[in-house]
Amino acid sequence: MTMLNTLVAVCSAYAVFLFAIAFVAERAAMRGQARWLRSPIVYTLSLSIYCTAWTFYGAVGSAVRSGFEYLTIYLGPSLVLIGWWWILRKLVRIGRSQRITSVADLISSRYGKSNLLAVGVTILAVVGTTPYIALQLQSVTLSFEVFGVGDLPTGEEQGHTALWVAAGLALFTVIFGTRNLDANERHNGVVMAIAVEAVVKLFALLAVGVFVVWGLSGGVSGALQKIDASPLGAWQIDGGRWAGLMMLSAAAFLCLPRIFQVLVVENDNETHLRTASWAFPFYLGLMSLFVVPIAVIGLEMLPEGSNPDLFVLTVPLSVGQDGLAVLSFLGGFSSATSMVIVAAIALSTMVSNHVVMPLWLRYAGGGAKVSGDVRSVVLLARRLSIIGVVMLGYLYYRLSGGGAGLASIGLVSFAGMAQVMPAMLGGIFWRGASRIGALTGLTLGFGCWGYTLFLPSFGAGVFLPDAWIAAGPFGIGWLRPQALFGIEGMDPLLHAVVWSLILNTGGFVLASLASFPQPLERLQGAQFVNVFEHSAAPRSWTGRVAQAEDLMIMAQRILGARDAQALFEREAQLQGLGGTLPAPTPDFLETLERELAGSVGAATAHAMVGQIVGGMSVSVEDLMAVADETAQLMEYSARLEAQSQELARTAAQLREANAKLTRLSVQKDAFLSQISHELRTPMTSIRAFSEILRDTTGLKPQEQSKYASIIHDEAIRLTRLLDDLLDLSVLENGQVNLNLREGRLSDVLDRAVAAAAADEHGARLRIRRDRGAENVWLNTDLDRLSQVFINLVANARKYCDAERPVLEIRVRQGDRLVIDFVDNGTGISSEAQDVIFEKFSRISDQKAGGAGLGLAICRQIITRLGGEIRYLPGQGGAAFRVTLPARIAMAAQ
Amino acid sequence: MSDSDLPRRGKPPVFLERQSYRRRRVNDAARVLPFIGTLLWVIPLLWPENGAAVRSSSAIIYLFGVWGLLVLGAGLLSWRLSVQAREGDPERDGTGVPGGSGGTP
Predict the structure, then answer these.
(1) Touching check for B1 and chain A: CB below 8 Å?
(2) pLDDT tens column, A662-705
(3) A851 phi/psi in degrees, rounded to 5
(4) B8 Cβ contact partners less than 8 Å away, ≥ 6 residues apart
(5) What's the DSSP call for residue A372?
(6) What number of C-beta contacts closer than 8 Å exist between A and B?
(7) Chain-centre distance for alpha carbon A552
(8) B85 touches chain A (CB under 8 A)
(9) Testing the interface with A: which of B24, B36, B57 to mutate, by most A Cβ within 10 A?
(10) Which terminal residue of chain B, N or C, has fewer Cβ atoms less than 10 Å from its own Cβ?
């Protein structure tokens, strides 16, 4: 009994010590001397709430029962920390930039600030954590019992111990866990107390371990020999459980509310994660190092049937090391208390933010602005939640009778919280993850876990009838809770984990693929997945009409008057305004919402700002609709613009056509007058000379023949003119039939040059040609082509005014066949260049030899042949370029 | 003139390139380490189960040896990354100094 009294005294002293530590830390933080409170080592140590009493005492028991399997519980989290670059880094950044307050808040925030999801995760967390809290109470009670063996009647007294512990923990948590409303601000006192407890439990376990190895086994080699000689001597492990539990503990480490609380919410600086990445695995390694030696010595020294879960206490006690035993007891006590404290804070944040506050907001009436002090409501909600959570754990402990059934609850709880993992990882890595998907996955996973693991864990007949477990519900064999789909013989835990996670992930992925997320979800999804690219929140408020004063009133009620005023003043300064009220710009509203989210969760904060900004708020949906309309308008106006451009083009074309018609009409008139003139001139001379021949008598024979030959010449000229006209009209009407033949270009040119030289008179024209290039085969109307060439050569002969006229014929074959006729005369003046291809245009009157139809005919012919003829300026003389399409020219064979 | 300018202008980028190259490789190492750890820790699945083929003492030495090596590796990487962060890491999001945003109490 004295031992028990001492223990109670030590316990009380330790509790007072913890209160003092927390108090000092809070004071230091308030005075701004918090630098040492925020070192990476404190952060790492606070992570050690992962090691609860279940691991402190239970690891040895687990080692006795199933060998090295206990290690998996430490290996998983170690890997998560070592792989921090993948997940934790992102998680912490998201937590900080979105001011996440809990796992439920993370999930809800990611999936469009959905409160339904938040409530779901909260329920899951409460269901999963309550047994775990009961487990801690049980371990403390059991350890008390060890010291007072025989002195205490079990039952009632046990319950008293648990009740006292629970009450003390609730008190501590209420005092230090709800000092700041803003869950995003660190609970300095709590974190410091946890860090100290982490040191105590590590030190206690190491002390027992060192004592066992060096005090009882004779050093390292002795200990190893003893291990090999013990029942644990051979390596025996169930492979499935080894890998499965490692994965499960890794998943649970990410999802357990209390771990999330210290890992993400209480994180003060992302760089601390870097230190924790090696320091926390190191801590876990030390925690698990001496477990097997303690188990082996316990098995060896203690009587058969002793509870292996308490070897950490009973081994030192059995050799009379009472001090060591008390230290060990404190270690276990620390493990239990720190877990309960943080779990209570984390759960109470969830419960008050996602269950109590939304209900209160809905039913208190009038909304955040009019009703009473929201701040006190939130605080009260949180305090009541803490007490509720701890007492729920106590009740569970009492109801479950504190039996062996509790011991297995640790892994059951892990498996329950691991159901959050698909939605969490999917949410931060996959933009396509949707709210519907998360809901589906969570529901399936939670249901499957409850049916296959949680309910059966109470034992057959408690919640599930015996018959169900043995033969399935209503005798449906493949629905047996521990042999789903007829797969029998699996380890029940592994079975539940595998099926629940498969159904969970499958449902999550399939529903995400099939559903279409709402706009806010998509925005949040982008924010989460690409958190490193941009850490700004979605713009969802337009605050032009919102009343800054109302916002101020609300913010004061949640953040407290001082903090709210400071925030508003800071924002006003940022906006460059003098007073204390900033203009309610979207930026400000966003900042405010995020500040509030730190206190009451994202969904509630969104709703509260929404209530104030009220009708003036533009929801994302509205924005999307507006954007849609704008897009439609823009599309419409673009179409109008296109149409008006088309109209303008058509009008221009019409104007052009009109001008052309006018020109053509003028041309026609000119043509008629030209042609009558051209016909009239030879007719006049023919008539005159034929009258002379008829009426004049006594003409000399030379005179007669001269006049007759003039008449003859003029008649020929007339005929040629008529021929040309006929030719032109045929060509213009497109009635001409082309006589396609194959021939060589050089031959065509030879013929043209020869024909042009036939009626040679005047200066002799030298023709320069490149016969190599002319070796091109043509498939065209060769006669028509040669007609064109004759015309061009004859023109050069007629009009080239150089002293030694030279005509150069260049042939080039690219993708088209190009033939240039360039002479060395003065060329054609630029104003004449436009008209030379028109009918009856003659370059110079003095050398008028033809009717001025030659080039017009040439153009018609070449056009008919699919080519083009044009004047080539700037060649030093008159230059014409004939271009023929490639299909006419064939490569020289 | 421009010829003589070019090599001088070219040098610093080469130097920087090398730095950021090392930086990326350190990040890669941080990514790979957990997979190495997982691999080493599931190797016990290959050990024969029945009989005394593997003594528990050797199992302890192996498992905790791997643990020690991983802690060492993670510590080394953490140190490298903190050096990088101090030197200023403009291009990587990484641990890039969150500006002490939580600095004020």
Answers:
(1) no
(2) 887 887 887 788 778 778 878 888 888 888 888 888 888 888 88
(3) -85, -5
(4) none
(5) S
(6) 127
(7) 36
(8) yes
(9) B57
(10) N
- Residue A825 and residue A802 in contact, taking contact as beta carbons nearer than 8 Å: yes
d(CA A72, CA B91): 38
Q: Average pLDDT, stretch A590-609?
A: 74
pLDDT at site A369: 47
How far is the C-alpha of A616 from the C-alpha of A589, rounded, in Å? 12
Give the count of beta carbons closer than 10 Å to the beta carbon of residue A361.
20
Residues in a beta bridge with A768: A808
B47 in A contact zone (CB under 8 Å): yes
Query: For residue range A64-84, what is the model confidence (pLDDT) as tens digits?
Result: 888 888 889 899 999 999 988
Q: Measured between beta carbons, which residues in chain B are less than 8 angstroms from residue A37?
A: none
- Distance in Å, alpha carbon of A529 to nearest chain B alpha carbon: 14
Nearest CA in chain B to A222: B57
pLDDT recorded at residue A537: 40
Q: Residue A778: enclosing H or E segment and its boundaries?
A: strand A777-780
Cα–Cα distance, A452 to A482 (Å, whole number): 6
Residue A885's contacts (CB-CB under 8 Å, 6 or more residues apart) are A816, A817, A866, A867
Q: In which element (H, E) is residue A883 found?
A: strand A879-885
Number of Cβ within a 10 Å radius of residue A603: 25
Out of B27, B44, B95, closest to residue A237 by CB: B44
Å between A319 CA and nearest CA of chain B: 25
Q: B70 vs chain A: nearest CA distance in angstroms?
A: 8
Tokens of A708: 């007759």
Which strand (E) or helix (H) includes residue A823?
A: strand A816-823
- Portion 425-444 of A in contact with B at CB < 8 A: none
Q: Which two tokens stand for residue B82?
A: 């903190």
Flag whether residue B71 sits within 8 Å of chain A, measured between CB atoms.
Answer: yes
Q: What is the pLDDT of residue A420?
A: 92
Q: Say which range, A343-357, A831-845, B31-45, has the weakest mean pLDDT.
A: A831-845
CA-CA distance, A178 to A266, in Å (whole number)? Answer: 14
C-alpha span between A453 and A457 (Å, rounded): 6
Q: Which residue has the higher pLDDT, A502 or A142?
A: A502
* Predicted confidence band of residue A321 (pLDDT cuts 50, 70, 90): confident
Strands A806-813 and A766-769: parallel
Q: Is residue A234 less than 8 Å (CB to CB) from chain B?
A: yes
The Cα A406–Cα A132 span in angstroms is 8
Q: How far is B52 from chain A (nearest CA, A)?
A: 5
**Contacting residues for A322 by C-beta, under 8 A, at least 6 apart:** A3, A316
Confidence of residue B71 (pLDDT cuts 50, 70, 90): very high
Which among A309, A316, A347, A22 is positioned nearest to A141, based on CA atoms?
A: A309
| Lowest pLDDT segment from A75-79, A351-355, A386-390, A796-800 | A796-800
